[in-house]
Design brief:
- The chain has helices spanning about 15-30, 70-105, and strands spanning about 1-10, 35-45, 45-55, 60-65.
- It has a 4-stranded mixed β-sheet, covered by helices on one side.
- About 15% of the residues are buried.
- It has a single domain (about 1-105), classed as Double Stranded RNA Binding Domain, CATH 3.30.160.
- It is of the alpha+beta class and about 110 residues long.
Length: about 110
């Protein structure tokens, strides 16, 4: 999986990079076939913003988080991405189960 962490008008420190990389494990535990993850960190006045785009097979998931602390915004961003990835995987598995059930019924 490709992982890209960049900053808009902010320097991405090694501590921020380590924090994001540690959180990356939560996503890879759910799905090993992730294509890419791009995170952009930015500062808007008093808000520390984090935007993430996760590429998975068949879809692109996007989430944004704005908190007072950059580490908190990264945490919230990964929480949102994990929820979206779970929902996407459930959709796919339901579709496959429905197809299998129809094959058995009409096959």
């Amino acid at each position: 999986m490709q992982f890209q962490l960049s900053g808009q008008q902010i320097e991405v420190t090694q501590a921020l990079r380590d924090h994001a990389t540690a959180k990356l494990d939560r996503l890879t535990r759910l799905d090993e076939k992730l294509l890419s993850l791009a995170i952009v960190l930015s500062v808007d006045k008093l808000q520390q913003c984090a935007e993430g785009t996760l590429g998975v097979t068949g879809a692109t998931l996007h989430a944004e988080a704005a908190e007072a602390d950059m580490y908190a915004s990264i945490d919230v961003l990964f929480d949102k991405l994990v929820n979206q990835l779970r929902k996407h995987r459930e959709k796919i598995s339901d579709k496959h189960q429905r197809e299998t059930r129809e094959d058995r019924q009409y096959g």
